[in-house]
């Protein structure tokens, strides 16, 4: 019984620590990220064409999703995100993609000067590829960070 109590205390401590990490790990609300992506890519279950995109945190108080809006008639996509504390603070803002053959999946956002990344919820298509045992080729694409930008309502 003593062993079970100790295990429960450890699990509870780990959960409390991870909740604290997730709370601070999202995209700050005063940040706008822009990127010109030269290839089609998948976010959640939506395929977006090449073009210029703006990424902002969502309007919810928990800040646990982001909105990606494209120019030139590209659809807007809302996707759930979680964060992880990084060992090294990135100096540049970049978007990280997982490539499987000719399919690109936006998987992570690294924000220059912030010690947490923003990981996007995976898509069904990517999960199917991983289930087949395929490994992605991970690559990063530069993005531009703007601080102190007001969100559009």
Question: What features would you describe in this structure?
Answer:
This protein has 153 residues and is an alpha+beta fold. Helix content is 20%, strand content 42%. The chain has 2 helices and 11 strands, in the order αβββββββββαββ. It has helices spanning 2-24, 124-131, and strands at residues 31-37, 41-43, 46-48, 51-57, 65-70, 77-85, 94-100, 103-110, 116-120, 137-142, 144-147. A 9-stranded antiparallel β-sheet has the order 10-7-8-9-6-5-4-1-11. A two-stranded antiparallel ribbon has the order 2-3. A hairpin with a 2-residue loop joins strand 2 and strand 3. The longest helix is centred in the N-terminal third of the chain and has 23 residues, at 2-24.
Which descriptors would you attach to this protein?
globular; two-stranded antiparallel ribbon; 153 residues; alpha+beta; 2 helices; 42% strand
What topology emerges from the helices and strands here?
Layout: H1 2-24, E1 31-37, E2 41-43, E3 46-48, E4 51-57, E5 65-70, E6 77-85, E7 94-100, E8 103-110, E9 116-120, H2 124-131, E10 137-142, E11 144-147
Antiparallel strand pairs: 1-4, 1-11, 2-3, 4-5, 5-6, 6-9, 7-8, 7-10, 8-9
What's a concise summary of this model?
The protein is an alpha+beta fold and 153 residues long. The protein contains two helices and eleven strands. The strands form two sheets. The protein has a nine-stranded antiparallel sheet with strand order 10-7-8-9-6-5-4-1-11. A two-stranded antiparallel sheet has the order 2-3.
